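Subject: for your reference before the review

Hello V.,

The reviewers asked for a structural picture of the protein, and I figured it would be easier to keep everything in one thread rather than splitting it across files. Below is the amino acid sequence we used in the manuscript, unchanged from the supplementary table.
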Amino acid sequence: MCIMGIKEVVYMSFVFTRIDDRAIHGQTVTAWSKVFQNNGILLVDDAIAHDPIMKNIYKNAGVGIKVYVYSNEEAYIKAAQAAESAKPYLLIVRSPLTLINLIKNGVNIGENINIGNLPLNDSRRPIHGFIAMNDQEIEACNYLDSLNLNVYFQDIPANKAFTWKQIMAK
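And here is what came back from the structure prediction:
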C-alpha cells in the first residue's frame, strides 16, 4: 500500500478527504474506509442533498458504514462538528469548489486532499488518468495547494500517488 505524503494531523479534522464525482461507491466503501478507520462518511453535495431519492440512495450506499448527506449550507455546521469530534470521519465532495466553500466557512477539512475520479465532459480537459478538470476546478486545487495542503491523486490505496505539483509540472 502506498499512500503518498500523508501528513500526520495533530488536531481534529477528517481522517480522509476525497474529491470524487461519483461520491460514494465501491472504492470508497471497500478500499479507503478500510485504510482510514471511521465512524461514518459525510457527503457534501447540494444536488444530492436536495434530491430525496438520490439522498436516500447515497445514504444506503455505505453498506455497513453510516453515511450523512448534507448540502453546502448544512455542512458548514455539520462538517465543522464532525471535524471537531473525537470520532474519525471521511469527507467526500464532488468538486474542489465545495472544499473551498467549507474552508472559507471555518471547516477544518484536514491537511490531505485525495482526488479521485472527475470525468471528462464538455467543460473539462484531461489532467491525469481518469481525472479531468475545468479552469475553476484547477484554480480551486491551486488554492488548496497554496494553503500547504497535501493535494494528491490516487484512485485506490494500492496504486501510486502523485502530488498536485507533480501533475501540474507535466
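For the response letter, the relevant points are probably these. The helical segments are 26-35, 46-49, 52-59, 72-84, 96-104, 135-146, 164-168. The first helix runs from residue 26 to 35.

Happy to draft the paragraph if you're swamped.

O.
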